[in-house]
Amino acid sequence: MMPVDPYIFLLIAVASFAAACAALWAFALRDTPKHIAARHHLRSAESEIVFLFDDEEIIDASPSAQRLLKTAPQANTPYQTFLAALRPRFPDLHGELANLGETGRLTMHPSDASDPVFLVAELWDGIAKIEICHPAENTHKPAIDPDHLRALEDELRTLRATTEHAPYMVWQQTRDGSITWANQSYLKHSQEMRQLSDGGINTCPPERLFHSISLAQGSPEGRAHRASVQFPERKQEHWFDCYSAEVGDHSVHFAVDADAVVRAEAALRDFVQTLTKTFAHIPIGLAIFNRDRQLALFNPALTDLTNLPPDFLSSRPTFFSFLDGLRERQMVPEPKDYKSWRQHMVALEAAASDGTYEETWTLPAGQTYRVTGRPHPDGAVAFLFEDISSEISLTRHFRAELEVSQALLDSFDDAICVFSSNGLLTLSNVAYTRLWGIDPSTTFGEMTVADAARSWQETFAPSPVWDDIRAFTTTVGERETLTATVHGRNGTMLQCSCTALAGGSTRVSFSVKPVPKLRKPPAPGTDQRIRITTDL
Q1: Within a 10 A sphere around the Cβ of 271, how many other Cβ atoms?
Q2: SS3 531
Q3: Do the Cβ atoms of 429 and 441 come closer than 8 Å?
Q4: Per-residue pLDDT tens for 192-246?
Q5: Which DSSP letter does residue 402 get?
């Protein structure tokens, strides 16, 4: 046997390895005939946006189409991502493609008439070829500058990141309400809405949450529109403030969570109702004017006191319209002229804003009102109308009785004064002022029994009677009537009498007695006291 050349052995090994690799490569490239034909169609349109589908399974896509899928909102399946990428331009694409098996070919134009592109779908051997085409006159456009293209791509990424991370819902829909695009916040709420209806499958297009918002329904586009959504797993409905704008045949909408605002408004309404119910049972008329000086709140007592009809008050009149209504019904003091009255009302409003207004209105019908103005938060002003006619009448009657009582005391020849239970001088007559030279009603401050006893002693003469009177006045409980005689420095005799009154008060009277001529008068400073027991 001849020895084997090592070079021949190496050559045979390399050849065997190459054959094996060729066999593996051929096996890897093995595919169905229609897939091979589909890739052949795709290679003929590498520079266009072309997609190849076998039913809803994507087979291949041109580089431009792949870039389009990468920039589109990502869905659960590639087919849904494809629909999400083209839905803003072709909102009816999903329904039209469902009929491709019957027609074999279809052409679609964007919903926006100014968009020059169009879509062509063809069915070849069970493979759907979908191509985004440009008009013939636009096929030879100059190339875009790379820097400009990079800037556009950066701006697109920024805008997409902004909308996707926005804390509120943003979406776009057609006139019939079909959702053509939505951000992550909207998709999250749409997923929550579908959890109980179809097992939580996130289908495309997303669930329509706001059925009251649609251009076709004449909704308030371009301004705020509050709408509620009832999610399946939540007990209470959730409120959103929606803002809409029309963009061509579509509309763009923004929904901001308004639950906190709705709860605050409900709490405010409950608070106002509570205040209204509370104020409805008080006899004082209440009128609250807001910062624009319109009547914001009133109670039924205001209608009774002012004679203003409820429908007039419910129309939220201004402050001066309210005052004019009072003047027409003679519920304000009679003015000398309208101009001066108007100036007085302006001063009234300014004083109420500062919290310093309080007046007593004497009305032509004889009623008397106390009107008080008080400032409230946020520039509001509250006016209180209180009928004090009975109080004024009682005060006048009481004052008349005091005047009669004072006149009765002044008619007595004896000097009389009355001390309260705590030793303060409350009443005195003219004879008391004439005897002691002091008018307690004109003195500064209050006069006590100690002050009075000091003046008696300085005016008349020192005597232990003054201490007895002071002790009698401040004694609590049942007391005996005290009578005593004091002799003055000039020989004058003064008869003193202390009598207990109801409520712990004490009446002290002084009577000047003539000096007896038949006997020698006692020495100055001596006294004669007589005690008489009385039941009080």
Answers
A1: 10
A2: strand
A3: no
A4: 777 644 444 455 667 778 877 665 445 554 567 788 888 877 778 889 988 888 8
A5: H
